[in-house]
Amino acid sequence: MRKITVLKEGWFFGKSREAQGEAVTLPHTWNAADGQDGGNDYYRGTCWYRRRLTAEETAGERVFLEFQGAAHTCEVFLNGEKLAHHEGGYSAFRVELSGKLTEQDGETPVQGDLLEVSVSNEENDRVYPQKADFTFYGGLYREVRLIAVPAEHFELLKDGTPGIKVTPLVDLDKRQARITVETWQTGAGEVTVTAAGQTKTVLPDACGHASAEFSIENVHLWEGLEDPYLYTAEAKLPSGDQVSARFGCRVFACDPKKGFFLNGRSYPLRGVSRHQDLKGKGNALSYEDHKADMEIIRELGANTLRLAHYQHAQEFYDLCDENGIVVWAEIPYITMHMQNGRENTISQMRELIIQCYNHPSIAVWGLSNEITAASPVNEDLLENHRLLNDLCHRLDPTRLTTMANVFMLEIDSPILEIPDINSYNLYFGWYLGELEQNEEFFDEYHAKYPDRVIGFSEYGADANPAYHSSRPEKGDYTEDYQALYHEHMLQMIEARPWLWATHVWNLFDFAADGRDEGGKHGENQKGLVTFDRSLRKDAFYLYKAAWNHSEPFVHLCGRRYANRCEEETEIKVYSNQEEVSLYMDGELVGCEKGKTVFRFRIPLVGRHLIRAAAGPAEDSMEICRVSQPEESYIFNKTASGVTNWFDAEEPDPACFSVYDTLGEIRQNPRAGAIVDQMMAKGASERGDVANAVKDNPALQRMMGRMTMLSLLKQAGADEESVRQLNRILQGIKK
């Protein structure tokens, strides 16, 4: 029989092998605090975990140690002997201890065998990720387990395999499924395989591989959110060792003109992306944390998740299976291509597919994310992607491959021809450009390549829920602008059903220790929900209104914008109902019919109780008229007047000004040097990615078409900085 022991307690942690260390419990990361506080100075180095293994824990004919996540490079020692080296911080791996344990020699020391584990997240040129807009936590941040099995057992070592592989092939017309169950084992004993209530006994080949096929009539399909039905396959050896896997019978397909299909029916994938970290805990999450995240996803009504930018915990894939969430799974081949990292991309992809193959929720394997942000499209990069694409199809012919391409990648780039389907990360309306450029981009792509499948893998705008404005604009970090941004994007997406999948960046705020913006240190604030999960921003409720129709719901926007100084204000309501009524101080203001977003105008004279009702659902809040703008609502208190103040200025047209485009200014060496110096200072506050892409030619062309004033406003420049730059530029003749 197989015995599994979770090694949660009894660990000591230190930054050197010799250190006595502090007592810790697993899961654990050493960057839970410094990886979230900004400054881009969190500890990236080698740390050590040690523990004594008792005879009771290690009892068994064959004993294996399983690490479900050791970030990012790990070495394992037993009684001073090095047993394993693993590179890749997000996948599982196992180490055999059999024959190395002193307990098995009948010479059990009183203190037990000494297990030492070194884990490193230090910078190098071969293990991904190395450059990206999130914190690379170090540690044993998932479970470590001992697995004791009989001498004859299912395979445990190769690529962290579960030992069983289930491939369902569905004939939708006949409502039948052919199920192939494969196993790998030590020894030549027969394997008893059960699937969907049917049992077969098969013999393995000389390599320990066995295969059994089953047919399911009137198959119960895995139908996404509506009915995520799961079957179970089991395999058992005469020794008593047993493995099992849940699986789902479903058919995924993509059409360049009609989008995504599930089981032969149109099923537009509309959802969010997720990072695996939490305020105060880093990435050392418990099952309860994963489950709480899934409950928020179900509340939102999303039917798809992009699990960025690496392999997530098996428990979370299980939750996706159970809840009918269609998943994009990917490896951390991100931002910067490393010539010495090719083997690591291959090993991480191989482990991702082998360990996650049985999850019915996974629809696509992601080859890379924004890999051209800091790297040119050269033959080495292209060849790396071809190898990954071929590996995916060899290991899993049933799923498609995809990529998330950075917004400055030209649409005729040869890298787009490698995966089966593609997606783009676009941030027009936030980092640069205007909101309308998002639809312009996709319409141009779709018109030029009508036979290619294209999706929208990232879009978002940072928002600190402490900041508010009645006139929100790009770059102000207000909750109100984020809501307006997503209203535009939702409308754009709904008008383009051919987008195979769309993923908001991000569901939750997450740690990016290199960031220092929007009133917070070390956080990317594009989440629809705050980092600690305590607060859902208004934009969250926009998507809930659009996607979740399980029960009537209504939400009043702007409840944190309580003190307003205007005589008349807008009250905005999100609802999944077709009609919303608004009441002020108990009196009906009006009724509006529509879809998702409802707007009302009311006068402000004092303190008012606002209530919205839609069918049985209602929501209420208080707002108050004040004489002066609430300074705490403004991120950059001097920036609010930039637009109105500068619109009134009349520059000398014979000289440069902030009304000129960046491209025009850069044509003059003196003027170009001045603005480049100013922009370099601003980029230093936007994290690693901003610095990595500053020399990207395509990005520079896009920025070159924008006025300097627009770029400065986006960067949150204060009025005096804009005025000073304009004075300098006005002193330089064209």
Structure characterization notes:
- By secondary structure, the protein is of the alpha+beta class.
- The protein folds into five domains: 149 residues, Galactose-binding domain-like (Jelly Rolls); 78 residues, Immunoglobulin-like, CATH 2.60.40; 298 residues, TIM Barrel, CATH 3.20.20; 69 residues, Immunoglobulins (Immunoglobulin-like); 91 residues, no CATH class.
- The protein is 21% helix and 30% strand.
- β29 and β30 form a beta hairpin.
- α1 runs parallel beside α2, α3 runs parallel beside α4 and α6 runs parallel beside α7.
- It is globular, with a radius of gyration of 28 Å.
- The N and C termini lie far apart (83 Å).
- About 1% of the residues have low confidence.
Subunit arrangement of the protein: single chain
Radius of gyration: 28 Å
CATH top-level class of the largest domain: Alpha Beta
The CATH architecture of the largest domain: Alpha-Beta Barrel
Alpha-beta classification: alpha+beta
What's the domain count?
5
How many beta-strand segments? 38
Main pleated-sheet profile = 8 strands, parallel
The backbone outline, from C-alpha atoms, is globular
Q: How would you name the CATH homologous superfamily of the largest domain?
A: Glycosidases
